[in-house]
Amino acid sequence: VLALRAEMPDLFRDGEYIPVDARGPRARNVISFLRRSGNATILVAAPRLCARACGAVPLPDPGFWDGTTLALPDTAWENWLGVPPADARSCASLFARFPGAVLVARG
Question: Which residues pair with 44 in a beta bridge?
Answer without folding.
Answer: 33, 102
